[in-house]
Amino acid sequence: MALIWSKKSTGVPITIKTSHVKSQDYISTCVLDIDIYKNEPKVIEHTKEKNTDGWKGTEFQVIIAGSFSSYKARIVQYLQQLAIITPYAKIEMQYTNRNDQKKDMTIRYDRRSEQMPPPAREVKHHPSSVNNLLVQQLVDKTNCKTLLKFLCDDLSGVSPSIAKRVIKELGKGFDENMKPSMLDGKQITRFVQLLRSVELFKAPDGSCLSPLGEYNLNLGIRKVIEPDIVATARDKASAYEGHPFIVEAAISLGGKSAKEGINVIRFANRIPLLFEAGADVCTRVAQSKIKWSSYKIDHKKDKISVFVSIVSTKVPFKGTGKEYIGDDITEIQTSVKRALQSCCQQLRSQLTKRNALRDAQQRKNRLVKYIPDATRSIFGILDTLRKRKAEEDEGEVRAASPRKIPRRPGEAERVDIENTSIIQKLNNDIITEDIIQACLVEAVELQGGPIDGVDGAIGIGKGSKKDIKAQPTFLVPIQYLDDGASDIHHELFVFRPMNRMKSLA
To answer: What is the mean pLDDT of the chain?
Structure first.
């Protein structure tokens, strides 16, 4: 495409410099043009020079005429998406404006991964993907002596038993032992029609594809988008009309360049697709086939980036521009939906934990806010108890409150003993307002301890003991609590902590 565009806009050939093989001690430089009438390459110059620096890679030099100011945003967008889908490559672009140096621009994306996608393997054609021209070419090149051998050896997924059934179904004019070269035009048409209609063949082999991989896709997204959360998934290899394909997907939330709502980024055979996104199968599935609210995601307010990469031996583009994939192919639509749903399920798990962590932090902040008021109230009750005891010792008798809770037999003596102990601690400054506040702060810290399975993004409860389990703070009827050693008695109520405070014991 680069050569064609260069030929169309400037007519200047491109220069390719390459050196890949480790044992290769030279660099090949090729000046290449194209014959647009014959659609054939035309090598203008091909030279070799010694590789003294051990340089490895490929370098293209292309001269293209165009308006950079008009298409600058598209170029930047293309390079950004290319950096996502090729994290194993270093991408750099320098733009120099000879008239205004302030408009000079440099874009650079460093290599993030050392893991290359697996190389594609050559496989045989699947019977469901052939056409008349392809079958004619295979028949002309085959070394098989019989039609049965041709079906089993030159096509994939055809067993001898199925091959015999196919030949029998072809009917008159076809025989297992006939030579493939004896097939005429009408027979080839009949042969192709039957092959494309039979559903007994094995599924196409996906080893001929070279997907990016979840690891590299995750690294590319984190490198460029820098999201808060990202989830990746790969659907199993599938096929349509005999052509194998693999769908890889990722969904990220947040990011420095993300916008509110659903932002779909599409790739076909690891090439970014920038135009006609609204009609693409990926966009339509993301916007209408996924129920985002079920995964705790607000598709209107959250910054959602959806990445879908489709790798296939034949990408079913719509239109001559090859910029979008239609949603009329059920197999691809279903595979894209499964991959996105798998990502959403991962995100739901992470969001549930993150929301629980956030709620725990908010609950802790609310409790901390009222610690001073609770401390003053508790200490005020204790101080009132001490003053009342002092008045009783001096002989003053105060009338009992009509709302006072009646005590059970023997409880009065136990309460008097506990009250006396608490009053002594108050007099000896063992119980002070600062100590009560410190105990409440400790209880809140235990309440806001770390949650299992959640990274310390907020850092709740750092430094707390692992063997102490956080318990919620709430009021419980006193009859459900048996340990009354730390009771605090009042005329109107009895305050009994769920856990005895060690500082007061």
So the answer is: 81
